[in-house]
């Protein structure tokens, strides 16, 4: 069952170097109790897509598109107001966990505040709920940890703390923007397992942003692949692993060590890197695409939809 959907999201930013076309017509949906991955290289518009949902873009952004959520259907520009009146219970966590925490206050008091100020609980009740939450995100000795400061904990522990803080607000959607990118592989796996457990236990929905296609197709239910501000392919992890159809998705898989050892690195997808200061009039991946045809350079491929899949390509695999 669908939790929310975005329809034809466009975001551009005026800048001294010209307009940045950051997101160019992205449509996707998230189901209840689903983990949706969004993958793509740096600058492809993953963060901006999610910041639009959270009403975090700032006044300079020019946006269009609609968000549907329960009985609400609003212009993307109205997300700030919708969130303010509690109509869109979503929370976001980021790559740099420590930056999201106050270094001068204990982690427990920062989480407890969400319960007292945000939800009107007494301080005793807030403390009890905080300790419960700390335990549920896998913090050992939660009573002792309540009084710890962020600098006394590891990166992985701090990311667990920001997850606990996000959950304290009882969101239905958690947006995690590269939450494991700064962590080593073992801790990354633990955080992913934690998110999966929370989804299974509570029916929470998660959007998980990453530049690592291998990670997201291991861990997420469905994956959206973005290139140069466009959604180029979306499918279940299983389908993508078995039969990726967009040449960019293919190239990303080939770039993963272990899949095709000869092409070990993402940077080795040949061709020009993406440019996003001109309005797209063609497939953004065409300059690097081994399956490019004439029309790929002069027309934007439309996003075709099937039940669980999306594809924007004139000459897919
Ligand atoms: N506030 C902003 N002002 C101007 N340009 C921005 C702003 N935020 C993001 N961008 C640009 O939008 C594009 C997409 O950025 P982003 O969504 O952060 O990429 P990703 O998260 O996929 O790495 C990039 O070219 C980035 O420089
Ligand atoms: Mg980003």
Q: In summary, what is this structure?
A:
By secondary structure, the protein is an alpha/beta fold.
Biggest β-sheet description: 8 strands, mixed
Form type: globular
Rg over CA atoms: 20 Å
Which CATH architecture of the largest domain would you pick?
A: 3-Layer(aba) Sandwich
> What is the CATH class of the largest domain?
Alpha Beta
The helix tally amounts to 10
Give the SSE order as H and E letters. Answer: EEEHEEHEHHHHEHEHEEHHEE
Class inferred from helices and paired strands: alpha/beta
Ligands bound, unique:
adenosine-5'-diphosphate, magnesium ion
Distance between the termini: 30 Å
How many domains in all? 2
- What do we call the CATH homologous superfamily of the largest domain? P-loop containing nucleotide triphosphate hydrolases
Task: Provide the fold topology.
Blueprint: E1 2-13, E2 20-31, E3 35-39, H1 46-53, E4 62-69, E5 72-75, H2 79-84, E6 90-93, H3 107-119, H4 123-136, H5 142-145, H6 155-168, E7 173-177, H7 185-202, E8 205-210, H8 213-219, E9 222-227, E10 230-236, H9 237-242, H10 247-255, E11 304-305, E12 310-311
Parallel strand pairs: 3-8, 3-9, 6-7, 7-8
Antiparallel strand pairs: 1-2, 1-4, 4-5, 9-10, 10-12, 11-12
Helix pairs in contact: 3-4, 3-6, 4-6
Adenosine-5'-diphosphate binds at residues 13, 15, 20, 22, 40, 42-48, 58, 276.
Can you give keywords for this protein?
binds magnesium ion, binds adenosine-5'-diphosphate, 8-stranded mixed sheet, 2 domains, 4-stranded antiparallel sheet, 317 residues, 10 helices
């Amino acid at each position: 069952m669908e939790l929310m959907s975005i329809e034809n999201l466009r975001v551009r930013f005026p800048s001294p170097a010209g307009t940045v076309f950051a997101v160019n017509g992205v449509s996707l949906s998230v189901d209840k109790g689903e983990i949706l991955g969004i993958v793509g290289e740096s600058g492809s518009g993953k963060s901006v897509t999610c910041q639009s949902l959270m009403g975090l873009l700032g006044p300079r952004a020019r946006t269009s598109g609609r968000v549907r959520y329960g009985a609400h259907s609003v212009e993307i520009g109205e997300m700030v107001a919708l969130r303010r009146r509690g109509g869109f219970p979503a929370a976001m966590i980021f790559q740099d966990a420590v930056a999201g925490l106050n270094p001068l206050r204990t982690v427990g008091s920062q989480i407890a505040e969400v319960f007292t100020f945000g939800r009107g609980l007494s301080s005793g009740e807030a403390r009890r709920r905080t300790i419960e939450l700390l335990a549920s995100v896998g913090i050992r000795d939660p009573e002792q940890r309540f009084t710890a400061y962020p600098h006394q904990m590891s990166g992985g522990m701090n990311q667990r703390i920001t997850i606990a803080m996000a959950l304290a607000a009882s969101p239905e959607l958690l947006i995690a923007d590269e939450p494991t990118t700064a962590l080593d592989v073992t801790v990354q796996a633990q955080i992913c397992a934690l998110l999966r457990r929370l989804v299974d236990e509570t029916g929470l929905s998660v959007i998980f942003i990453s530049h690592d296609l291998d990670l997201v197709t291991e861990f997420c239910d469905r994956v959206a692949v973005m290139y140069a501000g466009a959604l180029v392919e979306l499918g279940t992890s299983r389908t993508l692993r078995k039969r990726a159809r967009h040449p960019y998705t293919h190239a990303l898989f080939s770039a993963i060590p272990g899949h095709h050892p000869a092409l070990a690195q993402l940077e080795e997808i040949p061709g020009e890197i993406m440019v996003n200061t001109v309005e797209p009039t063609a497939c953004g991946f065409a300059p690097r695409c081994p399956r490019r045809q004439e029309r790929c350079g002069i027309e934007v491929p439309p996003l075709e939809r099937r039940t669980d899949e999306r594809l924007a390509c004139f000459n897919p695999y």
